[in-house]
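In response to the reviewer comment on reproducibility (Comment 2.3), we provide here a single inverse folding case reported in full, input and output, so that an independent group could reproduce the run without further information from us. The structure tokens appear first.
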């Protein structure tokens, strides 16, 4: 069924295609049918607001107000226009009206707090210049293009992983031969936090869960930004640590969802990439806070004991740090879904590439690759 111009504009607005939304609304097939449509004028005004055309936004909002005067979204949108101009008294008046009709309106409450603490003209100008003012705009919700792109990327990642796994078994890549890194990393621009998400970075009600890390708004944003930066620098482990910090914190569900999406773009680290980017994590560091390193890939040396092979799989205990038989840093259960070939020699030092798992606070490794030097002549 064909969609109306207004439905198409709603879709474009949610996809952040503001110019196209305005074009459809202003030059649609039947503009006369929207002459008395509150939704039409509100949608057009919001699109203009996000484009920075505050004059047209104000005109559309005024038309909408002639049709419906008590809508909280409209009143909040008009309030932010006054706030942009530095007219904080008028903005407060409108936000008070918003709270009369919607006492728990988060945007109005946040804007009132902003005016109270940073309501000078210079601070308002700074908020406009930096884009911080957008956290008081009507929210647009999740961009469906982002969801679709993430789903397609995840599917492509699964296909690529299967290819690398099968190709690696034939070519010996599983024993530490590095795959070349070329080109730019995936574009994560759609995963940048919106102004609204930054303004509501923390959960307000902590009674329903257990949170290992209680973070401030600025700490949450810093951790998220670091995860994005580390990803672009090919530092999967460093990014994973920040993601874990957020997932175990009081960060909002929206931020946690986006943090998980970042990890869907990760590539598998190798022995060489861990060394090249300085991202290998020592056992002692992981032991202090295992949950912070869940899902990270490490290269640990030592010797194995209690090895068992069953149904093609392989499990043992890795005596981390015991390669020279001086001391043992820790005993870590190690599991390979497919037994390594050639088999690990328990009488010789070994270096294992594995992904960290945690069960009941105990560190475990899901094996990825093994490196064990050949015997020298005479041994």
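Designed residues, in position order:
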């Amino acid at each position: 069924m064909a969609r109306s111009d207004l439905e198409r504009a709603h879709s474009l607005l949610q996809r952040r295609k503001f110019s196209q939304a305005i074009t459809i609304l202003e030059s649609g097939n039947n503009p006369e049918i929207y002459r008395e449509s509150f939704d039409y004028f509100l949608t057009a005004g919001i699109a203009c607001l996000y484009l920075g055309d505050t004059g047209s936004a104000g005109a559309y909002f005024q038309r909408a107000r002639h049709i419906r005067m008590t809508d909280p979204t409209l009143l909040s949108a008009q309030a932010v226009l006054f706030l942009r101009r530095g007219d904080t008294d008028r903005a407060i008046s409108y936000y008070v009206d918003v709270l009369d009709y919607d006492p728990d309106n988060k945007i109005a409450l946040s804007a009132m707090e902003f005016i109270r603490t940073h309501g000078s003209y210079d601070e308002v100008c700074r908020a406009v210049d930096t884009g911080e003012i957008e956290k008081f705009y009507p929210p647009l919700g999740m961009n469906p293009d982002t969801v679709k792109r993430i789903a397609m990327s995840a599917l492509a990642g699964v296909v690529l992983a299967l290819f690398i796994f099968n190709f690696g078994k034939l070519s010996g890549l599983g024993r530490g031969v590095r795959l070349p890194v070329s080109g730019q990393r995936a574009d994560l621009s759609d995963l940048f936090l919106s102004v609204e998400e930054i303004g509501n970075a923390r959960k307000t009600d902590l009674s329903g869960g257990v949170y290992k890390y209680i973070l401030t708004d600025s700490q949450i944003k810093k951790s998220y930004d670091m995860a994005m930066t580390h990803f672009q620098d090919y530092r999967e482990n460093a990014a994973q640590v920040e993601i874990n910090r957020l997932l175990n914190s009081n960060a909002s569900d929206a931020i946690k969802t986006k943090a998980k999406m970042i990890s869907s773009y990760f590539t598998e680290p190798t022995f060489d990439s861990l060394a090249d980017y300085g991202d290998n994590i020592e056992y002692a560091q992981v032991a202090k806070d295992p949950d912070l390193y869940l899902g990270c890939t490490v290269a640990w040396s030592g010797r194995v004991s209690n090895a068992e092979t069953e149904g093609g799989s392989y499990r043992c205990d890795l005596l981390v740090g015991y390669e020279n038989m001086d001391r043992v840093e820790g005993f870590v259960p190690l599991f390979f879904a497919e037994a390594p070939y050639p088999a690990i020699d328990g009488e010789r030092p070994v270096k294992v590439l594995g992904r960290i798992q945690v069960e009941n606070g105990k560190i475990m490794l899901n094996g990825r690759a093994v490196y064990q030097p050949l015997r020298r002549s005479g041994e």
